[in-house]
Amino acid sequence: MKQEIDALMHQQHADALWISGAALHNPAMVYFTGGIHVTQADLFYRPRQEPVLFCGPMERDEAAKTGFRLRSYADFDYYAYLKQAQGDVLKAQGLRYQQMLEDIGLTQGKVVLYGVREFGPFYALLSELQRLLPNLHFYGDVNDAILLEARATKDEEELEHIRQMGRLTTRVVANTQDFLSGHTVRNETLIKSDGSPLTIGDVKSRINLWLAEYGAENPEDTIFAIGRDAGVPHSSGTPSDPIKLGQTIVYDIFPCEKGGGYFYDFTRTWCLGYAPDEVQQMYAQVLEIYNTVAAELSLDINPNTLQLRTCELFEAKGHETVRKNPRVTQGYVHSLGHGVGLDVHEKPWFGQADDPRNNLRPGSVFTLEPGLYYPEKGYGIRLEDTYYVSQAGKFAKFVDYPMDLVIPMPAK
Amino acid sequence: MKQEIDALMHQQHADALWISGAALHNPAMVYFTGGIHVTQADLFYRPRQEPVLFCGPMERDEAAKTGFRLRSYADFDYYAYLKQAQGDVLKAQGLRYQQMLEDIGLTQGKVVLYGVREFGPFYALLSELQRLLPNLHFYGDVNDAILLEARATKDEEELEHIRQMGRLTTRVVANTQDFLSGHTVRNETLIKSDGSPLTIGDVKSRINLWLAEYGAENPEDTIFAIGRDAGVPHSSGTPSDPIKLGQTIVYDIFPCEKGGGYFYDFTRTWCLGYAPDEVQQMYAQVLEIYNTVAAELSLDINPNTLQLRTCELFEAKGHETVRKNPRVTQGYVHSLGHGVGLDVHEKPWFGQADDPRNNLRPGSVFTLEPGLYYPEKGYGIRLEDTYYVSQAGKFAKFVDYPMDLVIPMPAK
Question: What is the CATH superfamily name and number for domain A153-407?
């Protein structure tokens, strides 16, 4: 949680955090600023000091919403530095940032870098700055030890953001189910009112509309994949594919708040009308293993233990798993879950058995998503909900949604 | 254009381009891959060699759409490297990428970095790699000399993408105009059917819905700002503000293709019902200057000449401008325009008088957007269209849209 940042910085001997980039769709920036509309900013955070936010003069009103100490890029005239640097762009940028950092008294110590941005020119700028301010040392948080560690547990306000996204997400899923089952069927294919087949692309358009209507967005798209595509976990689906009865549809939806806020992550697998015997059988296995693992959730467990347990359960039923072969493409081929927050994938990580900082604890938010994939047989199955651990240490899903495989298609 | 990349690399003595990050909302990656759904990839481009694309094994089907040579991260087992590095995450990542680069024969020369991503850990990785592969040298394209220069001129296919976005954008603007003028007015305020005032937030929700319906998104939001907010160029508008008659509304909309493709950028300024005399007068000035500058567009002109010309025209009418004072907040306070493409702001730049690579030429796509801002007087005005230069050297807007200030509110 946010109040841990200073202690985590102290542990890592970090003197400052430098968060750069846009204020939207930039998790580290949103974590501090709460989602203002600033196209480019540099935020400097130091313990026991007011954060300093640099932005363009035209965005001062938006930036003021943070309550941070504001500085304008316009106070550091780029063209003057360019003249001083005799037209050398990199040198000019270096001189400009040197002056900015000197102005706020940040010229030495360990600075940890955060932010999503075009990194080529920024990499060059950092190298140049390193030359100009040799007592300043730049680091990446490769061990997820400061901001990502703070973000790994959510406070009540953050949980509420995610809960709202869960409600919104399942509302979209329910709309999708109603939309599908409202269609006419001809030759095992769902048919639109104009007589043409309903396609994956049609369904995705509807999903996007509902998300927009409810005030969310899906920057990383939505997986709505049928048949063989459903058997490839990250295939997002082929827009021209018709929606047919009796084929597995993997519907994995992971929208975020408009502007790049908190995510929700949710998957159901459906067969319209009926499901083939083998799919029914495999679905029952996935559901059974989902329920087994969900019942074994406990405080302070390392999620990798749950992943290994899931592999064991799938192997006992005769499937290949990633535990035995990391490159496997048939069977249980991925991780059981991941943390969810301002990134759709964040801490706790499920692959770090030795790192107790990933252990589930109050404030943890994570997915459980076991699945089975047989692309050559034309099907895939995945079930996923987002869970949290309450302050009292209880595990719960944010929202419930039915686990039915078969979506009945009413006769017309 | 794309076919210039090899020559531009040669000019810059670049041996390889390394494009990293997601395939969506990552302009450099979209430029090469065309918008596949891959959450994390590394693309290596070298002249006269097939590009190599690294991605996760679950995303192989999406990645295959590029036709590039595919490599899987799973072939380089992270946990084996972690063991080798005795648990040091950064060393493990360094060893892994060292092996990946050695595998594709990229161990020396100048590598130019591109891509939008969380840069802290990547900065650390590059520093580590630099140690492991001392003959490899990483650069940022700080002079916009390779990819950004290639992207500065668009081929016919790209122009068509932008034209489609222009049609879509003006369709949303027309919907917005109809939506506003369809409202009842009470006490100078637009009223919803439930009797409450129509707000900026209500209008923005509609805009988002139309964008989703037509298959676009606005990752950087939309400016729909009224009154004083309209006088602050980058204020995006206050959601709770009611929509009132006689106040300037700056409507600046800059959506992109779903997933982060080509942008369009467009602004109109409206007064509902009527406009105060001063606003009418100032609007006429902005429109006149817009038309003057648009008529002076010519091949091989540096856009900075147009910016200075615009300042001159505004100054002649008694306004302050950025030419005289870069920190000005009243009068003409920003640049006349910018290039548009896979970024909403890209080359040609309007502030680089000395760099002929910004000169307007066949394939250039850019905005013209003069404006006047008087926040303390409660108004702002901006007019903007996106232009292109045809292969034959002709200048044209992509789409037309009326330039009326006053939107009549029919009596009810």
Answer: Creatinase/methionine aminopeptidase superfamily (3.90.230.10)
